[in-house]
Amino acid sequence: MEDYRRRQQGDVSNGPKPRKPVLELLWFFAIAACIKFLLIPSYRSTDFEVHRHWLALTHSLPLSQWYFDETSQWTLDYPPFFAYFERFLSIFANIVDPQIVDLQKGLDYSSNTVIYFQRITVIVSDLCLVYGIFRLTRSLDPIKRKLVWVLVVWSPALVIVDHLHFQYNGFLLGMLLISLSYLEEGRDLMGGFAFAVLLCFKHLFAVAAPVYFVYLLRHYCRGGFVRGFRRLTIMGSVVVAVFAAAYGPFIYHGQIQQVIRRMFPFGRGLCHAYWAPNFWVFYILLDKGLSILLRKLGFSVKIPTASFTSGLVGDSSPFSVLPQITPLITFVLVLLALSPCLIKAFKDPLPRMITRWVAYAYTCGFVFGWHVHEKASLHFVIPLAVVAVKSLEDARHFFLLSIVSCYSLFPLLFEAQEYPIKVLLLLLHSSLMWLGFSAQFNKGESVKQATSKTKRRHIQTKVSTTSTGEPFRIRFIEKAYLFGLLVVEIWAQFFHPFILGSKFPFVPLMLISIYCSLGVMYSWIWQLRWILRPPPN
């Protein structure tokens, strides 16, 4: 009776102790790992051979030859820290199967040993993502924390890109989340250090560097000229030390220009692939449409020869009618799109806003950047998963964006046997999002109904930032867009082959690219509107 009375009064100290968050998160990771293990024999892209060759290259050659080797067409074009990472993995690859790291005999090597070894390295490296999301969510309440874990650890886009197509995005995004977690805690020096390390692993994350610079300058280096200058010197020394560790050996060998040429191949063209959904999709289509129209009207206009649907990395043909686009133009456009965010960070550098600002920066880079990879949507979708639990409006935005981002990756898996996998992954993710957001944003009403009138105001105040009692529903325009997405997929997958056969094979992929570009542009505008709002109290 005494135990019963104590439980009725809210004393549950003698009851079962709740699990530690880190153990619960590891269960989430273990479930995801089991699914990833089942996908090991599935389709893999040329990126699989790229990374296998980098294992062989870094293992077989001295450091001075890493960025000069042309044994394979898959030359090393990542920053030095990633090359060191490949060198570290090559030690174990040599133990598992020496042919994996043989520079000549290993070309296009595809035995079970290399497949399982490389797949498992990606799964294990995802522990960095797990640690990052743990740090970033440990101050949240349990419901929101677990919802973010579902959105990130079970992300179907990460499964498609890393564990089917093959890359190490989870590992790299984990470093980004670690950096953001330090900044949100006010530990700016560690946050800047982690971001500098990330840039030395993959330079494409540098799109957010202006946001980091302005934020750290105004938040970390504040407190008067002397204190600010001292802190600026400390931060600069840390960043320089990281870059010296990465690039120092290549500077010593006089190879820094070669490293930079490999990392920034501006000759590859404006677009990386036909399905990267961004602003340049509309620009290319407009140029092609105008060139065809003007020719029919009798004007002498050269029709572009490069195929919009080739999907290959290579030089793009000059535009026929519209002005030529150069890397400098895209750089300026990205900075202009970033400027509202930079102004906000300069005026009011709030730690709780940094994740949202960084996600917006990566969205700008994706929309207006040069030679954008379709996988780069992960750079803003994953951080926005943390933001999604903050308000009902954020949840609605993420629900739509996450589906669009995942669907835009479908062309990466073009073989028939992978079609059920990617569809099931997206449907499962959409269902989990719906259930999770419904549980999160409906809990306010259930809590209020279960409490007395004397406590009602207090509870409403505590949950007002996340739970308004309004059920999670998407609006008409979002429903219409998602219905259109379904129509596009049905046409591309079923009606087009049945009606037109092999005619106009580029149309399905072009429709997917255009439609997903609309969704990404909508997300960019939505984030920009949020940035332009007055700062929250």
Automatic annotation (TrEMBL):
Coiled coil: none annotated. InterPro entries: Glyco_trans_ALG6/ALG8 (IPR004856). One of its GO terms (cellular component) is endoplasmic reticulum membrane. The keyword Transferase applies. Pfam families: Alg6_Alg8. Keywords: Endoplasmic reticulum, Glycosyltransferase, Membrane, Transferase, Transmembrane, Transmembrane helix. It comes from the Eukaryota. It is a multi-pass membrane protein. One of its GO terms (molecular function) is dolichyl pyrophosphate Glc1Man9GlcNAc2 alpha-1,3-glucosyltransferase activity. It is found in: Endoplasmic reticulum membrane. This is Alpha-1,3-glucosyltransferase. The gene is LOC111460108.
